[in-house]
User: Which sequence fits this backbone?
């Protein structure tokens, strides 16, 4: 059973999500929060598997709440009004596993919860790449290559392809290795870089300059 916490300052949104998710045999909504601070407090008490987090909330905004929860290992899926909301990139940097658009189809929302609960990135690599390209193009930052120091040359090759939107099978074909070996490299990189899914790997790849906007796969 997937335990879900809903964090949104609009009661109608929370009610709609609860009605959508509580009807599933493998899901249960264990709590609702109307602001970020309440979400953090409640998460500590009910220990959800997944938090659906709105960004714009009073008291403590969704970014700060995401940062606090992700640090404890809670999976956070940011729920936003626009698919390129200016805060989404910061949410990914803060540890969110991905994001959902509020007008997503019911099936998409259920799928997103299941994907996050099993420990995978909610965003497809291609969507993540497009999102990050948008913001690195708009707001270029100084490159810091230090995070790449622990990685082997092979791991950097895999990371670059993850960031370009390739699946494990596609990476395996390009680098002439098995998909299982690719998965092992990805898991090792997550451990070395202290991240918990592919979304954060993509952020690191762009922020360190390993991959740059416009690079081809």
Assistant:
């Amino acid at each position: 059973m997937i335990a879900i916490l809903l964090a949104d300052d609009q009661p109608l949104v929370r009610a709609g999500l609860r009605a959508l998710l509580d009807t599933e045999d493998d899901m249960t909504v264990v709590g609702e929060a109307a602001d970020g601070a309440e979400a953090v407090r409640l998460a500590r008490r009910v220990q959800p598997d997944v938090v659906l987090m709105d960004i714009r909330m009073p008291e403590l905004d969704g970014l700060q709440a995401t940062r606090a929860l992700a640090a404890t290992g809670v999976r956070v899926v940011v729920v936003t009004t626009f698919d390129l909301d200016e805060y989404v990139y910061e949410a990914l940097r803060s540890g969110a596993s991905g994001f959902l658009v509020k007008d997503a189809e019911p099936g998409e929302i259920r799928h997103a919860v299941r994907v996050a609960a099993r420990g995978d990135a909610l965003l497809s690599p291609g969507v993540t790449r497009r999102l990050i390209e948008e913001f690195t193009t708009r707001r270029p930052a100084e490159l810091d290559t230090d995070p790449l120091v622990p990685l082997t040359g092979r791991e950097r090759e895999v990371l670059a392809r993850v960031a370009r939107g390739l699946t494990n099978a596609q990476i395996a074909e390009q680098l002439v290795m098995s998909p299982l070996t690719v998965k092992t490299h990805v898991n090792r990189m997550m451990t070395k870089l202290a991240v918990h899914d592919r979304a954060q790997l993509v952020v690191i790849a762009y922020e360190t300059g390993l991959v740059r906007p416009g690079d081809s796969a």
In short: The two ends are 38 Å apart (CA to CA).
